Amino acid sequence: MRLSQEELASGQLLPETLELAANLVRVNGFVTFEEIIPRAVIDKLYDAYIDILEPYLAEHHEEVYNPKNGFNDGTNHIRLYLPFEKPFVDEQILAHPFVLSVVDQVLGDDCAIRYFATNTSLPGGRNAQPVHSDMHSMFGLRYGANLPISNLIVNVPLVDTTENNGPMEYWPGGTHLQPDYMYDRKSFPKAKLAEHMTVLKATMPAGSIMIRDDRMWHRGTPNKSDKPRPNIAVIYSAPTTNPSKGTIPIPQETFDGLSPRLQKLLRFEKIGHPALKPTHYEVKP
Ligand SMILES: O=C(O)CCC(=O)C(=O)O
């Protein structure tokens, strides 16, 4: 969606835009707001991200690179958890009023942030990722109805995402509306179905915001450019459906400097702990 000048200037969605956006998430699995975060903020984030990515890749080369099939099965994709510190900690990224109005509407205003990371398609990838949803079934193969939306992933690309630099591909419209058992690893393979289904590419300008149900099927694709294509990924969860302990260590001083709303969003996280060093290993609660 492209927002009006009035909405961009006031930082508030008009009631009809909010209704449309929330219903698009419910029905289509996602909504995108184009070019929301100012370019200067995005460029600063990109530079800071490259400053941690490059040494990280150099230091962890042996762990992340396999001579047989390349990096991460030839996808050259990396998930890197971010340290909870500036410039990554920015209210425009974590508590943007457009995002909060949509997540409050869909998840409830007691929702919480449970995840803070990046997904990057690095140059030189040969293979696309397998088609997947980010959440697995809650009840395995036993439950045959769709469950309410419990996690919304907010992606913010730090570069213009084009056909050429590894846009995420996604299957909207119904893949988030499946019975719970369809998200089990043993259910009918998504890749087989996806080949016959309509797919979109998440091409968008840097600083756009995509809000998606974490069950919507998607995959990373190879980056044919010579520059990394990072997406920030923040997950907002309905607390009733996501009682896990926190995964984001937040230094007390940093927490104290946040807005009351962002403090509330982060209330289940590890407040008073030193910031995490960047890592590609899964951060467990
Ligand atoms: O290209 C992207 O940002 C999506 C990557 C992704 O889905 C993943 O790494 O699980």
Structure description:
- The chain is an alpha+beta fold and 285 residues long.
- It has a single domain (5-271), classed as Jelly Rolls (Sandwich).
- The protein is built from nine helices and 13 strands.
- It has helices at residues 5-10, 15-28, 39-59, 61-64, 91-94, 97-107, 190-194, 252-256, 260-265; strands spanning 30-33, 65-66, 70-71, 77-81, 112-121, 151-157, 169-171, 200-201, 209-213, 217-219, 229-237, 249-250, 270-271.
- Strands 1-9-6-11-5-4 form a six-stranded antiparallel beta sheet.
- The mean pLDDT is 94.
- The protein binds 2-oxoglutaric acid (AKG).
- 2-oxoglutaric acid binds at residues 77, 79, 119, 121, 129, 168, 218, 220, 231.
- On the 0 to 100 scale, the average pLDDT is 94
Gyration radius (Cα, Å) is 18 Å
Strand order of the main beta sheet, please?
1-9-6-11-5-4
| Pattern of helices and strands | HHEHHEEEHHEEEHEEEEEHHE
| Structure summary, number of beta strands | 13
Output the CATH class name. Mainly Beta
InterPro entries: Fungal_Metabolite_Diox, Phytyl_CoA_dOase-like
Protein name: Phytanoyl-CoA dioxygenase
GO molecular function, one term: 2-oxoglutarate-dependent dioxygenase activity
